[in-house]
Amino acid sequence: MNLSLRKYDAILATVQSIPAGKVATYGQIATLADLPGRARLVGTVLNKLPQDSGVPWHRVVNAKGEISFRGDGESVTEQEILLTEEGVELSPQGRIRLGEYRWEP
DNA sequence: CTGGTGACAGGAA
DNA sequence: TTTCCTGCCACCA
């Protein structure tokens, strides 16, 4: 078992600790998981996550408050819907108001 | 082993 | 306010 796997677990645990109706940025997750500056790893990890991982990945967005995904919008739309269902309101530009919904541990 | 890729962030203009 | 450039490191061929 790789020690890096423990870091993945820390990332997943942090994402799962995000309360409903709130969102967190990749950098924030990375910092909370003791991986400062490794925001890309958070995205890479989530990208490889299975669908039944039970991780609320839809609450994780980039620093701009936008929903990220390899440029394709289908999954992005699903993420927007999930967030809206939880009470997260989106800006007209399709961006989340981090000042309002950013998770502050 | 080397090189390229990637759900990003932060600073500068 | 947004856009562009750079750095960061795990994973894949």
Description:
The protein is mainly alpha-helical and 105 residues long. The protein has a single domain (4-101), classed as Arc Repressor Mutant, subunit A (Orthogonal Bundle), CATH 1.10.10.10. Helix content is 44%, strand content 4%. It has 5 helices and 2 strands, in the order αβααβαα. The chain has helices at residues 4-16, 26-32, 39-47, 74-86, 98-101, and strands at residues 24-25, 60-61. It has a two-stranded parallel ribbon with strand order 1-2. It is globular, with a radius of gyration of 13 Å. The chain binds a DNA duplex (13 and 13 nucleotides) through residues 4, 25-27, 30, 35, 37-48, 57, 60-64, 67-70, 75-76, 79.
Task: Summarize the topology.
Elements: H1 4-16, E1 24-25, H2 26-32, H3 39-47, E2 60-61, H4 74-86, H5 98-101
Parallel strand pairs: 1-2
The chain binds a DNA duplex (13 and 13 nucleotides) through helix 2, helix 3, strand 2 and helix 4.
Q: Which features does this protein show?
A:
single chain, 105 residues, Arc Repressor Mutant, subunit A, two-stranded parallel ribbon, 5 helices, 44% helix, DNA-binding
